[in-house]
Amino acid sequence: MILDRLELTPAELEEQTGWSLKPEGLCRDDRCVPFASAPNDSVDVRAVAERLRMPVVHDEKHGLWALGPESGGHVLESAELPPIVLADVDGHPFDFASLQGRKLVISAWASW
Q1: Shortest CA distance to 10 belongs to which of 53, 57, 47?
Q2: Of 11, 65, 97, 100, which is most buried by a Cβ count within 10 Å?
Q3: Dihedral sign, Cα of residue 99, residue 100, residue 103, residue 108
């Protein structure tokens, strides 16, 4: 996200990042991160970046800031596999849900 200032209204923050300011903190979908700020106050992008582990860089020449994306922590939000049905080596459909409760390693390969 490219910004021309580091203070945003809560509405601008939500529009540009998807994170909304609520009494319980910064929230997006069903995730909330504790964050101290009143819902009607301006939001310091540096504080948001620190709390969400997002990088912030400044382009002095053009007077712009860049925020994001989220980083750090776990790569996946959960270890749940989405519904996947793929063809096996014989071309028959194989539903990965049939392996529920087992550990699974998926290896992918591409020629390019």
Answers
A1: 47
A2: 65
A3: positive
Euclidean distance between CA atoms 102 and 112, whole angstroms: 31
Say how far apart CA 18 and CA 30 lie, in whole Å: 12
Task: In whole angstroms, give the CA distance from residue 31 to residue 11.
Answer: 18
Nearest of 37, 29, 33, 52 to residue 7 by alpha carbon: 37
Residue 37, domain member (yes or no): yes
Number of separate domains in the chain: 1
Containing structural domain, residue 61 = 2-67
pLDDT digits (tens, 9 = 90+) for 5-54: 999 999 999 998 889 988 888 898 888 888 887 656 789 999 999 888 88
pTM given for the model:
0.58
Token pair, residue 106, equals 């998926």
Q: Which amino acid is at 15?
A: E
